[in-house]
């Protein structure tokens, strides 16, 4: 199965400029293929990850990925699907974001063969206004540009000239990469179709109609309920472990709906057809075991954060499920309890009844606290406490930073030592 057949099986092809031509090309040689990302933030989220997963598949199939960090285009902003102009960033912020995104790309692509990361600021910044208008602007028909979906969707509320010309700049990128980096294919999300075809048109006008360049887009990924894929209840799921911890990242994937999990296995893992078919059977016959979700979480977390992060996430998950949090490290407590109810407490040792009522307000009264302690409903750092005279000493565990309380079977609290 060649790469295009595999992508079709995975449901990852939306539009192609010339399927037969592209199919012949990828069967004949190692092809340069690029995906661009503008540095509008200092981390990708999992929605951004989708085209780069496809680019990774091309890399594993022996092709040559080129990642374009849009230091030039990111300085002006593309006309997004939103009904308003992007807020322009300072160049210092753009530079900071470029460095962060470059690091993430090196992590994703640096293990499996050659790849390139380039920055379109390097060539776009050298264009004078007159060069831009004479050499490129003359080749773009305004009527055609107005009919591009991303522009047409903004005409009612208005679009600035800056964002209107974005498709010209992206087309210049494709032409530059074709000339200097042996790139013949541009890959992007479904919303990039207009920009991609503008690029192929420009290359054909400048280099000749027989220039072999192609565009390929990926479908918009929707959940089974019809909503857009990519967000959790807390917002975006980031690749930056400081924004979304590896444990949270793992939990996002393991909590996917049975109706979606096989599609996500096709999109976000490198498992074979046979492996995914076997997991699909298990979803049908034993959905309660959630084996497909577990495999999805393992594969994507390892791809983004590494195997050690998977082991850590599984360790935290097992500890929270069993209640045995005593074996967790301080770093694992930081991850696993990030979104738990949190209170601040003093480092001074204190009687458990006073601590539960006065310091943390976990218990509503001393009577209720004594009752829960006597009934074995209170665990401190994983240990069941049934002595109302027990002294809580925050320095005893987790480097003196935390005390973990479990009340009943599932209710956890994180006491953070001031």
Detailed description of the structure:
- With 418 residues, the chain is of the alpha/beta class.
- The chain has three domains: 3-217, HUPs (Rossmann fold), CATH 3.40.50; 231-322, Tyrosyl-Transfer RNA Synthetase, CATH 1.10.240; 342-417, RNA-binding S4 domain (Structural Genomics Hypothetical 15.5 Kd Protein In mrcA-pckA Intergenic Region, Chain A, Roll), CATH 3.10.290.10.
- It has helices at residues 3-9, 19-28, 46-60, 91-109, 121-124, 129-136, 142-147, 149-152, 161-164, 166-180, 193-207, 246-254, 258-268, 273-285, 291-305, 307-322, 330-336, 352-359, 366-374; strands spanning 15-16, 32-37, 64-69, 116-119, 183-189, 214-218, 231-232, 235-236, 342-345, 350-351, 378-380, 383-384, 391-392, 402-407, 411-417.
- The strands form four sheets. The chain has a six-stranded mixed beta sheet with strand order 1-6-5-2-3-4, sandwiched between helices. Strands 9-15-14-11-12 form a five-stranded mixed beta sheet, with no helix packed on it.
- The longest helix has 19 residues, at 91-109.
- Largest sheet descriptor: 6 strands, mixed
What is the domain total for the residues? 3
Q: Please, how many helices?
A: 19
**Helicity, in percent?**
40-55%
Q: Give the class-level CATH name of the largest domain.
A: Alpha Beta
Q: Could you say which overall geometry the principal axes of the C-alpha atoms support?
A: elongated
CATH topology name of the largest domain: Rossmann fold
CATH architecture of the largest domain: 3-Layer(aba) Sandwich
- The number of E-state strands comes to 15
Our estimate of the beta-strand percent is 5-15%
Termini, distance in Å? 59 Å
Q: Give the CATH superfamily of the largest domain.
A: HUPs
Keywords: Aminoacyl-tRNA synthetase, ATP-binding, Cytoplasm, Ligase, Nucleotide-binding, Protein biosynthesis, RNA-binding
GO biological process, one term: tyrosyl-tRNA aminoacylation
Binding site for ATP: 231
Catalytic activity: tRNA(Tyr) + L-tyrosine + ATP = L-tyrosyl-tRNA(Tyr) + AMP + diphosphate + H(+)
